């Protein structure tokens, strides 16, 4: 219950700061300009929340809203989702307001043409602004990746080349050798079975059983009759 109350307080403070028009005078030109700026800013903030949710780190604005307390990722993720929905609602509200404001200046013949031009301009400026925001977010992601790099523990003072250490730091996906194909396993098994004098047939039979697909029924007589 305490977490829910803190979430409501953070959301109310954020929404109260963001909802509203930013214009200097009360003329319609300034109102349309303020609506366009609000559309650009709200769109970029909504995309920022979605980006942070995908990458797994809270935005600076969300962390700053909690004061000195550091929210957990589950707590911050929930706030980001609510903020993203609220920001997209603001975008739709501002776009409706800009469409209504243009009806004062233009008649029906030029209204659709001007609305199309206005949306193109707002879309281009939004993409330009988003590139600036995205560059800052990518720097944060790269910094987190460098900090999360795991150290390589070398046992018994073994020597590991620098190139191998670089690949091992990338994680277990790159730290294991590639999977050997089936025909390579057969050749390796034949090579090793030569060294087993009495258990040669058993080594060959076990290797065949391991490589059989799941659910395939094969008796020992079939393996022996294959001539292996």
Instruction: Tell me the distance between the termini.
Output: 70 Å
Q: Extract low-pLDDT stretches.
A: 215-228
The number of distinct helices, counting runs of at least 4 residues, comes to 10
Biggest sheet details: none
Helix content: over 70%
- Based on CA atoms alone, the radius of gyration comes out at 32 Å
Which overall shape is indicated by the principal axes computed on the Cα atoms? elongated
Structural class: mainly alpha
User: How many structural domains in the coordinates?
Assistant: 2
Number of strands: 0
Task: List the helices and strands in order.
Answer: HHHHHHHHHH
Mean pLDDT: 74
Strand content: under 5%
